[in-house]
Design goal:
Number of helices: 6
Shape: globular
Number of strands: 11
Distance between the termini: 12 Å
CATH superfamily: Class I glutamine amidotransferase (GATase) domain
Largest sheet: 7 strands, mixed
Order of helices and strands: EHEEEEEHHEHEHEEEH
Helix content: 25-40%
Strand order of the largest sheet: 5-2-1-6-7-11-10
CATH topology: Rossmann fold
Number of domains: 1
């Protein structure tokens, strides 16, 4: 069986736990992960200044090379959705029916796709109107799985979030 591969989206001001916790859970499970960003080989600082060096530029990322996409929160998703290559890649992943996972403010990037239409989802409460306006039925739950969409609210939800991602990738 081919080894699974996940795109973890990154930009400046990402939430440290929401990026690194899933990354290391994937590694423990034997799943490869790339850090996809607007630029390749750039150190993107977290909200606290902790760097994440991107490994793939969004303009070069191809949906057919990945099984899933994870969008961590923090303010990074607001920067992500300002970049056309990041939006294109996110849309390509959604259109290809890949597993799409977003936690906290990660849902902001997904508002630039059509994934929320008719789906149940959760997010950090401050952006719940954004995901509703993008077509989602908002639920206040630690993890909501609706088809290939996996969403969670905050760092406290990371165990359920990562468990759902690993379960979806095992199918």
């Amino acid at each position: 069986m081919a080894r699974k591969k996940v795109a973890i989206m990154v930009d400046e001001q990402y939430q440290v736990l929401e990026l690194w916790y899933p990354y290391y859970r994937l590694k423990e499970a034997g799943i490869d992960a790339d850090f996809v960003a607007a630029e390749v080989n750039k150190a993107y600082p977290s909200k606290e200044g902790y760097p994440c060096v991107s490994t793939v530029a969004a303009k070069d990322a191809r949906a057919d090379e990945y099984d899933a996409m994870i969008v961590p929160g923090g303010f990074a998703p607001d920067f992500m959705r300002r970049n056309e290559d990041m939006i294109r890649f996110a849309n390509d992943m959604v259109d290809a029916g890949k597993v799409i996972a977003a936690i906290c403010h990660g849902g902001w990037l997904l508002c630039s796709t059509n994934i929320y239409k008719g789906k149940k989802a959760t997010c950090f409460m401050a952006i719940r109107d954004d995901i509703k306006n993008a077509g989602a039925k908002y639920l206040d739950a630690e993890c909501v799985v609706d088809g290939s969409l996996i969403t969670s609210r905050k760092p406290d939800d990371l165990p359920a979030f990562c468990t759902a991602i690993l379960k979806a990738l095992a199918l």
